[in-house]
Amino acid sequence: xDEKEALxxxxxxxxxxxxxxxxxxAVAGRSGLSVPFLSQIENERARPSPRSLDxxxxxxxxxxxxxxxxxxxxxxxxxxxxxxxxxxxxxxRGRHQLSAMEFxxxxxxxREFQHRNDEVxxxxxxxxxxxxxxxxxRLGRGDxxxxxxxxxxxxxxxxxxxxxxxxSVAEHIDATYDSRR
Length: 181
Description:
It holds the Pfam family Cupin_2. Residues 171-181 have low confidence and may be disordered. Helices cover 35% and strands 25% of the residues. The strands form two sheets. Strands 1-2-8-3-6 form a five-stranded antiparallel sheet. Strands 5-4-7 form a three-stranded antiparallel sheet, with no helix packed on it. By secondary structure, it is an alpha+beta fold. Helix 1 (3-20) packs across helix 5 and helix 2 (24-31) crosses helix 4. The protein starts with a helix and ends with a helix.
């Protein structure tokens, strides 16, 4: 396995682990490898030997071949054309680790969200009010709010023409936000 392939395998390992809802500690327990080493693999700081990669694949209930195939499919340069579905612009689509969506206009404050993964909200224009963990946060142009995974929240635009950028891990935010309609 060459260095570039090893790096891509690290991202595939992370995606698979998250898909299964496993922690690094759980994968370490299953594989017999250390948490720091697994973290280094995922963060592309260490190259696993073929034997270590086999152990990781077994712990993730897959094969090294599938991890390598996922790594190969991870290489992409995608262009997403502007579209507008009721004020929601998808900035990144498909198989990416991140999802970025731009909301323009109103949001139903009665609808509450909760995601398993972290989320960042950035106010491009206008202002929003976000209720999270029983507290109201007023954000204006250029402000950012970080929400860790599991935090219940809701938001609404407080100024007409507000544009809000929301970034999270793709596999969870897309499904959660799409179901709001």
